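INFO  loader      accepted 1 record
INFO  loader      residues=238
INFO  predictor   begin
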Amino acid sequence: MSNTLPDLIDKSRQAVVAVGTFSATDNPRFGFRGTGFVVGDGKTIVTCAHVIPNPIEKDLAIQVPASGNASGTPQLRPVKLLRRDTTRDLAVLELEDGKPLVVTLPLAPVDDAAMAVREGSAVALLGYPLGTVLGVQLVTHRGIVASITKAALPAPTSNNLSERAIRQLRSGEMEFLQLDITAYPGNSGGPLMDIRTGKVVGVVNMVALKSTRESALSAPSGISYAVPVKYVLPLLTP
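INFO  predictor   done
INFO  writer      dumping tokens
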């Protein structure tokens, strides 16, 4: 099935959520940390491991966009950590109240020897760049899969890579999708979608920096990375 990008956004926006912590005594009560997306039975959310605080000292929550609620307003829902793979920077959350969300995103099927997407494929990432700075407003960026490369995460909390670190990680064992897309802090954990098929092919997890962390905003490199969906699938099976 072939999609246009506007069609894909319309179909997917209700399934892309903001991930963070919740405390009734904090101001604001919701502490934004990254993006996630709903899969499977509507009660499961995929995000990045580094989006989840470690240790978890506050309640975890997701903010469902206004388009995903009958009330037409954003809604906070409590979640719990189901599984975490720090080696591949992935985490799976579950809605605590057991009430599924209506819209879920389909995952591209793959096997251990294959990738769900080819180099040069047109893709889009959906998420909440800068989080509450933009009012937790869903934003879409599009581009292509520039390369399928091997790398190794320097640490479970790493969500940005310098030019030097990228060179050092080329000899790693894990495959990554290098993207010709500009992503920003807050996009971590968001879905990378094949525009043609409308299926998730990866999870956005890193942004290449030109110099400092601040340069991600003032002078973005235009290079981002995503964890291939083949590493997500095993985490969804108990």
